[in-house]
Amino acid sequence: MERRSRLTPEREAEIYECVERLVREHGYENVTMQQIAAEAHTSTATLYRHWNGKPRLVVEAVRNRKPHPLEAVDTGSLRGDLVAGVGPMEHAAPGDHELMAGIHNAARSDDDLAAAVREVMAAPIERAVETVIDRAIARGEIPPDPPGRRFVHELLLAPIAVRPMMTGKHPDSEYLTAYIDAVILPALGVRRDH
Which pLDDT score, from 0 to 100, does residue 2 have? Predict the structure, then answer.
């Protein structure tokens, strides 16, 4: 993308770090592009030229720091991919959950933010999940048209989004593995005979 070529990766990372810090400290709704520009020692024109506005800038800043782990996983088995893919979720700090909850809450009333979340965060997760499922089908681990395929990307995020709200606890690796075995794999047609 030519419009981004003028910022070095290091400079982009500095801006992303500044954006994330401001959003954590003040909340998405309370941070302005002018504030980001001042803190990042750049101009609002530069920010708009590269990100077209606050929604895209904030979402890309968060995504840049924490790419979804399923994107780089290939263990050779469906269960292995899923366990390895959700494992890093256990180590997410409570502040990360709060940050994402704040962004998702703001997106409910900000169409541009909601669109940026879908494009920058949700779509890559869906593609990564589809890749994991397609590999499992090709290996013969699951049927060609698993019954819960269209729900899996949402199901994978549920323990992270819902469990803290319902129980006050973040899922650990034991919980996430049990969840994969009891919910995700059966949804994809895997039968566990033990």
Answer: 41
- pLDDT, one tens digit per residue, over 21-35 is 999 999 999 999 999
Amino acid identity for residue 102 in this structure = G
- As given in the structure block, the two tokens for residue 186 are 């059966």
CA distance 60 to 121: 8
Tokens (6 digits) for 65: 């720091």
**What distances in angstroms separate CA 138 from CA 86, 107, 144, one per listed residue?**
22, 37, 8
| Cα–Cα distance measured from residue 80 to residue 125, given in angstroms and rounded to the nearest whole number | 17
Q: What is the CA radius of gyration of the chain?
A: 19
Cα separation, 189 vs 36, in Å, equals 48
The answer to whether residues 14 and 40 touch, using CB atoms and an 8 Å cutoff, is: yes
For the chain, the residue count is 194
pTM, two decimal places: 0.77
